[in-house]
Amino acid sequence: VYRPNKVVLIVKAASVGVEGGAPSALRFAVRDNGAHPSLALDLPMATHAKVDLFDLNGRRVALLHDGALDAGRYVFAIDAAQHALSPGVYFARASLGTASARVARVVILR
Length: 110
Prior knowledge:
The chain has no helices and eight strands. By secondary structure, the chain is an all-beta fold. Strand 7 (88-96) and strand 8 form a beta hairpin. It is globular, with a radius of gyration of 14 Å.
């Protein structure tokens, strides 16, 4: 997918199993809504959540959220300029409490 002058996300989401497993209704996905790409997180229950963005070397390049969230849908914007993100592959991780995580691959093109 190519869009001139815009950040484009190509996503493949995956679950990372951790002891206890992730709630089956948990959803984590990347949304490309034009000039403001974002990560959508649907929580089936209230929990502590942390949403990070990592580069291919495993360095955290952005912390999008770290705190308590009630059940519901949350959208976290990815601002490539604010976080000085170059075109390339990144991984977004949503960690919930200590028992589960979801990972989505994010490809940013300019």
